[in-house]
C-alpha cells in the first residue's frame, strides 16, 4: 500500500511539475495578455463529420471554419463518448473512475465538496464566470460548483415550448421560468451576450453550452418548408457563434479573448451516417468506444496570440481544459484531488512544451488508452489506428509484430498505472447510459 501511495504521489508531483513548467510560457511569452477572457463553446452531439473545417461532406459551418482558419485546429481532441461523463471530465479535469461520472446517471452524484470545477479554479485568479445552456446530466445548479451566473434548462435538445408534450422551463440564477414562444437557443444566447456586456471590464470565463445539435432535430427559426432540418440546425448553431463574435468585436474584446470550440462527443446515432468526411464514413458514433465516439472537433482562436492556419496533431483529452485555462489565467490548480489533465498552452503558442503521449477514454464499464498510432482497450485488444478515423484494425498476433508488441507493452503500462478498475466502477448496464437500470429495446 505504501509503495502504491508513493507511486501515486510521485505521479501527481510529476504532473504538477509539468503544469508549473507550462505556466512559465504564460509568464514569459509577450503575446499572452494578463488575465485574458476565456470563452469555452461546447456543442452538443457535434462530431468531426459535422464540421466542414474537418472535411465534412453534408454539413457546412463557415463561421466555425473561419475560427479554425484564423487559429488552430486540433486533429486529435478526445473526450468521453457521452455527454454527462464528457462534461464531468471537462469541468473537473479528472477521469471518470476518480469522480464516479462513468455513466449518465452517476454524473448526478458529483458533489461540490468532492470536486472542484473550472469556475472555482479561475475565481481564485479574479475571474467572474457564467454557464449558459445545457447543464445535464450534472447535479444541482452551476452556482453550486462556482459559477457566478447561469441560465440552464433541464435535459437535452430543448428548442421550443411544448415539444415534449409539456411546457418547457429554464432557470436563471435560481429563478425558474416558462419558455413561452421563444426559441431556447436564442434565449440562452441573449443571456450569454448580455452577461458579457455587463462584465466586459472584468476578466471573465463563459461556458457557452450550446443546445445544438442534440436530437430530436426540429425546425429552427430560419428553416424553410421541406428543408434539411439537420443542416438547418448546424447552420443555426454556426450563426449563433457568428453573433457571439460580432458582440466581442463591438465591445473590442476579441483580441483579449481566447475562444475554444469543441464537441461534447461524436455525432448522434441517427445522424452518424451523414457525417462523412471526403465520402468516407467514420468508425463509430456517440455512445460507443470506436474512434468516432470520443474524437471531437476542437479548435482555438485568439487573434493576438495564436497565428492563423495552424493544424496540430497534438493529443488532447478533455481533462486538459481545466489546467490549460488555469495556466492562461494564472490560477492555482486545486490540490485536494489528483488531476489528470495537462496544459496545452505551449501548443497554442506554437511551442513544443510537454505534449501528451496518450489519451484515456472511458464510458460505462469500458475504457481504452490511445497514442498517435495504437489503441489498447480494457480487454487487452490492440488496434492499429493508422487509418483512423475511418478504420480500426485489430492486431491478431501481437507477439509476431515487433512494433505492435512494443506498443502493447507501452500502453499496458499506462493502463496499469492508471488502474481504472480500482476506481469507481459503473453500477448500471455497462453502456454508460444508465445506472441501476437494464436497457430495454
Secondary structure blueprint with pairings:
Elements: H1 2-28, E1 37-43, H2 62-69, E2 72-78, H3 83-92, H4 96-99, H5 118-123, E3 128-134, E4 149-153, E5 169-172, E6 175-178, H6 184-198, E7 204-209, H7 229-250, E8 257-263, H8 291-294, E9 295-301, E10 310-317, H9 321-329, H10 345-348, E11 359-363, E12 366-370, E13 374-377, E14 382-384, E15 393-394, H11 402-418
Parallel strand pairs: 1-7, 1-8, 2-10, 3-4, 3-7
Antiparallel strand pairs: 2-9, 4-5, 5-6, 8-9, 11-12, 12-13, 13-14, 14-15
Helix pairs in contact: 6-7
Describe the protein in words:
Helix 6 (184-198) runs parallel beside helix 7. The radius of gyration is 21 Å and the shape is globular. The chain is α/β, with parallel strands linked by helices and 441 residues long. The longest helix has 27 residues, at 2-28. The protein has helices spanning 2-28, 62-69, 83-92, 96-99, 118-123, 184-198, 229-250, 291-294, 321-329, 345-348, 402-418, and strands spanning 37-43, 72-78, 128-134, 149-153, 169-172, 175-178, 204-209, 257-263, 295-301, 310-317, 359-363, 366-370, 374-377, 382-384, 393-394. The protein is 29% helix and 18% strand. The protein contains 11 helices and 15 strands.
Amino acid at each position: 500500500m505504501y509503495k502504491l501511495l508513493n507511486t501515486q504521489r510521485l505521479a501527481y508531483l510529476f504532473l504538477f511539475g509539468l503544469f508549473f513548467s507550462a505556466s512559465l510560457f504564460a509568464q514569459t511569452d509577450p503575446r499572452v495578455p494578463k488575465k485574458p477572457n476565456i470563452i469555452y463553446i461546447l456543442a452538443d452531439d457535434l462530431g468531426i463529420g459535422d464540421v466542414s473545417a474537418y472535411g465534412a461532406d453534408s454539413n457546412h459551418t463557415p463561421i466555425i471554419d473561419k475560427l479554425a482558419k484564423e487559429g488552430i485546429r486540433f486533429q486529435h481532441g478526445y473526450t468521453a463518448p457521452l455527454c454527462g461523463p464528457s462534461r464531468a471530465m471537462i469541468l473537473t479535469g479528472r477521469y471518470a473512475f476518480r469522480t464516479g461520472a462513468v455513466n449518465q446517471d452517476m454524473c448526478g452524484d458529483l458533489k461540490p465538496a468532492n470536486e472542484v470545477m473550472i469556475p472555482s479554479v479561475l475565481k481564485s485568479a479574479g475571474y467572474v464566470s457564467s454557464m449558459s445552456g445545457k447543464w445535464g446530466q450534472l447535479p444541482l445548479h452551476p452556482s453550486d460548483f462556482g459559477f457566478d451566473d447561469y441560465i440552464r434548462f433541464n435535459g437535452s435538445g430543448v428548442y421550443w415550448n411544448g415539444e415534449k408534450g409539456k411546457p418547457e422551463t429554464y432557470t436563471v440564477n435560481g429563478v425558474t421560468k416558462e419558455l413561452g414562444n421563444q426559441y431556447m437557443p436564442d434565449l440562452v444566447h441573449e443571456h450569454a451576450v448580455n452577461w458579457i456586456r455587463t462584465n466586459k471590464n472584468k476578466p471573465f470565463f463563459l461556458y457557452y453550452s450550446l443546445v445544438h445539435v442534440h436530437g430530436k432535430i426540429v425546425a429552427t427559426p430560419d428553416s424553410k418548408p421541406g428543408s434539411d432540418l439537420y443542416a438547418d440546425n448546424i447552420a443555426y448553431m454556426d450563426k449563433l457563434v457568428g453573433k457571439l463574435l460580432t458582440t466581442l468585436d463591438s465591445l473590442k474584446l476579441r483580441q483579449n479573448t481566447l475562444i475554444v470550440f469543441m464537441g461534447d462527443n461524436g455525432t448522434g446515432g441517427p445522424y452518424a451516417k451523414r457525417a462523412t468526411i471526403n465520402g468516407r464514413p467514420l468508425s463509430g458514433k456517440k455512445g460507443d468506444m470506436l474512434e468516432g465516439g470520443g474524437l471531437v472537433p476542437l479548435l482555438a482562436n485568439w487573434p493576438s496570440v495564436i497565428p492563423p492556419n495552424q493544424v496540430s496533431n497534438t493529443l488532447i483529452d478533455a481533462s486538459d481544459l481545466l489546467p490549460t485555462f488555469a495556466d492562461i489565467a494564472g490560477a492555482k490548480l486545486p490540490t485536494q484531488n489528483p488531476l489528470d489533465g495537462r496544459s496545452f498552452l505551449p501548443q497554442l503558442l506554437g511551442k513544443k512544451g510537454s505534449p501528451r503521449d496518450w489519451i484515456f477514454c472511458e464510458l460505462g464499464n469500458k475504457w481504452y488508452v490511445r497514442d498517435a498510432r495504437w489503441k489498447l482497450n480494457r480487454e487487452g485488444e490492440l488496434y492499429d489506428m493508422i487509418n483512423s478515423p475511418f478504420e480500426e484494425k485489430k492486431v491478431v498476433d501481437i507477439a509476431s509484430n515487433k512494433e505492435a508488441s512494443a506498443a502493447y507493452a507501452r500502453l499496458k503500462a499506462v493502463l496499469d498505472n492508471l488502474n481504472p478498475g480500482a476506481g469507481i466502477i459503473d453500477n448500471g448496464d455497462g453502456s454508460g447510459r444508465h445506472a441501476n437500470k437494464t436497457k430495454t429495446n
